[in-house]
């Protein structure tokens, strides 16, 4: 498993990141905005809907991860889950962006049910997809390369989820189409892009899973499920990664979901301006990927990650005191934030794969599914809290759904959620990783020993003694 990955195999896996980034960022960036400004849902209710949905998604994450770890199939334990997710995820995305003519209570329930279906489908894809990366290679350098390709294509997905939809909506509205219809078309495009790219990933990764993972798996039961969760909470390195991811997701939820509000009300600009900012963010993030990759090779992924996210966090805090009053200033801001965002997506799953290997050596189990899912659970718990906070802050600040302009208190609340509040969270995310014991050299030694143990060969624990859990 330490052999060099072929480019076609990397691309076969990484293309799924287009679909992942497209649906995830489309919903994260626009669903709240659509409900409050197009569908006529109050900010408090919209925040509650998103909060409940993300909490539901968080609850199902460990369950799906546990079931994936205990799945048996001649096609592998991950790929059947990925295929089954396509229809519910794609269909629900389109239906979520329909401006339905229902009574208010029925309308609220409509969006709640559909977003629950969406996050369930997304989880069924996302957990096995990212755990798949841990078995394609056990080489740290190859995992970084895999992350680089995945993130480049992931930013293609972000472009499809941010710049393309705002361009489509702006263009159709300018041509005289209703705003709600324009958003439905944009959601349909996002759903098609996502479904096609994920299907291609499923098709071209056939035969890439390790079938020996499915031998002698534990019997599925609530007891073993709970025991697995308890085991994870005892691993300090895992908890630090979880804290870092939690803070980062709170940051990104507030930042992404506030961007359209900020552009529309604080800057007084159109969807086209938002499209320009999103495009700038995507292009610069792609440009940064090779630099982050080279930096990881020269230093360590922990050092690079901490430096980048703390830098972006400080820039977000300082932006509170700088009035972003033009597209140019907005683009400069999203570029500076993009440094930390790029480092996060480049490094976070490599950190998690370190935990998978650390856990495999100390507990002699392959539990990548539950490790990825519990990470996702905490991640989305933070997103749920952030969405609820956004709804409450908008409501308390006096946000008026149908108004073309907002009060000073509302503008201040939007600005805070777009700048210094997520900035503080981003700095905390970097500080958590600064204390991780899973350093690159120690993990290389551990992986070498793990590989020898799997082959039944003699091995030494020299170089990673501090990573051995005393029983």
Task: Walk me through what this model shows.
It is a single chain. With about 475 residues, this protein is mostly helical. It has one domain (about 5-205, about 220-455): Up-down Bundle (Growth Hormone, Chain: A), CATH 1.20.1250. The chain has 18 helices and no strands. It has helices spanning about 5-15, 15-35, 45-70, 80-85, 85-95, 105-135, 140-160, 165-175, 180-205, 220-235, 235-265, 270-300, 300-320, 325-365, 370-395, 410-420, 420-435, 440-455.
Sheet/helix structural class: mainly alpha
Number of strands: 0
Rounded Rg: 22 Å
CATH H-level name... which superfamily? MFS general substrate transporter like domains
Number of domains: 1
Distance between the termini: 29 Å
Q: What's the average pLDDT? A: 86
Task: Work out the helicity level.
Answer: over 70%
**Level-1 CATH class name:** Mainly Alpha
Can you summarize this structure?
This protein is an all-alpha fold and 471 residues long. It has helices spanning 7-14, 16-37, 43-69, 79-84, 86-96, 104-136, 140-161, 163-174, 179-204, 222-233, 236-266, 271-298, 301-319, 327-363, 368-396, 408-418, 420-434, 440-454.
């Amino acid at each position: 498993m330490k052999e060099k990955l072929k480019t076609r195999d990397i691309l076969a896996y990484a293309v799924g990141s287009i679909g992942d980034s497209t649906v995830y960022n489309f919903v994260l960036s626009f669903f709240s905005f659509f409900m409050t400004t197009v569908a006529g849902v109050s900010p408090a209710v919209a925040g509650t809907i998103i909060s409940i949905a993300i909490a539901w998604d968080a609850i199902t994450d460990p369950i799906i991860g546990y079931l994936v770890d205990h799945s048996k199939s001649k096609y592998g334990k991950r790929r059947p889950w990925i295929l089954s997710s396509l229809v519910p995820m794609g269909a629900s995305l389109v239906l979520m962006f329909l401006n339905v003519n229902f009574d208010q209570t029925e309308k609220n329930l409509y969006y709640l049910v559909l977003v629950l279906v969406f996050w369930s489908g997304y989880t069924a894809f996302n957990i096995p997809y990212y755990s798949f990366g841990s078995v394609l290679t056990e080489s740290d350098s190859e995992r970084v390369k895999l992350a680089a390709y995945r993130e480049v294509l992931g930013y293609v997905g972000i472009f499809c989820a941010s710049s393309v939809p705002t361009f489509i909506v702006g263009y159709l509205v300018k041509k005289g189409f209703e705003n709600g219809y324009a958003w439905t078309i944009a959601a349909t495009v996002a759903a098609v892009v996502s479904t096609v790219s994920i299907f291609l990933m499923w098709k071209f990764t056939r035969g890439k899973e390790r079938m020996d993972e499915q031998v002698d798996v534990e019997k599925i039961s609530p007891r073993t499920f709970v025991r697995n969760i308890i085991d994870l909470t005892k691993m300090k390195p895992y908890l630090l990664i979880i804290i870092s991811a939690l803070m980062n997701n709170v940051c990104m939820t507030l930042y992404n979901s506030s961007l359209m509000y900020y552009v529309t009300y604080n800057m007084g600009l159109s969807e086209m301006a938002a499209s320009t900012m999103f495009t700038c963010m995507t292009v610069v993030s792609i440009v940064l990927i090779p630099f982050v990759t080279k930096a990881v090779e020269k230093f360590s992924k922990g050092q690079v990650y901490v430096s980048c996210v703390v830098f972006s966090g400080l820039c977000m805090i300082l932006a509170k005191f700088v009035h972003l009053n033009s597209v140019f200033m907005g683009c400069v801001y999203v570029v500076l934030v993009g440094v930390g965002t790029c480092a996060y997506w480049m490094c976070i799953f490599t950190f998690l794969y370190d935990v998978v290997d650390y856990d495999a050596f100390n507990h002699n189990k392959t539990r990548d599914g539950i490790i990825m899912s519990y990470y996702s659970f905490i991640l989305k718990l933070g997103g749920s809290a952030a969405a609820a906070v956004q709804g409450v802050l908008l409501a308390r600040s006096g946000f008026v759904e149908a108004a073309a302009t907002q009060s000073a208190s509302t503008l201040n609340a939007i600005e805070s959620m777009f700048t210094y509040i997520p900035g503080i969270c981003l700095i905390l995310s970097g500080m958590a990783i600064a204390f991780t014991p899973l350093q690159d050299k120690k993990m290389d030694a551990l992986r070498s020993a793990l590989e020898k143990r799997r082959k039944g060969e003699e091995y030494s624990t020299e170089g990673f003694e501090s990573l051995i859990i005393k029983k």
